[in-house]
TrEMBL record:
Residue ranges of domain Fe2OG dioxygenase in the record: 35-123
Region forming the signal peptide: none
Keyword match Lyase: no
Keyword line: Oxidoreductase
Keyword flag Oxidoreductase: yes
EC number in record: 1.14.11.-
Name of the protein in question: 2OG-Fe(II) oxygenase
Matches recorded under InterPro entries: Oxoglu/Fe-dep_dioxygenase_dom
Annotated source species: Ideonella margarita
GO molecular function, one term: oxidoreductase activity
Amino acid sequence: MRIVKSLRAYAGTAFRWQRGRQGTGYDKMLLLTSRWPLPFDSYLIRYPEGSEIPPHTDPVQAGRHYRLNIILKSPKSGGEFVCAKPLFATGRIKLFRPDACEHSVTQVVGGSRYVLSLGWVLGKNAT
């Protein structure tokens, strides 16, 4: 029964644009998620012109939260990911701990920004 409820919830939200949590103008589309064997989610994130994300962290109840962001399309300016201590970063690839490191996105100017975002949580004893 729990599996059926999970599948219905997924079907009701997957592949549909939803407003982002920060209320700053970005949209997200759930692509795939699972709670077992490794809790993870994957989203396509759209940042239209004028959107931004203020500095914040994303706490989790237990374990360590990791997120890999792959920038698919950059705007003409702005839309820069800011994180003081990423685990790995190139121009288009960002791996970081959103629960442990404050992060943000500067205001998008001149176009839009699209990001493929993959996140997962490892247990308390994982490294």
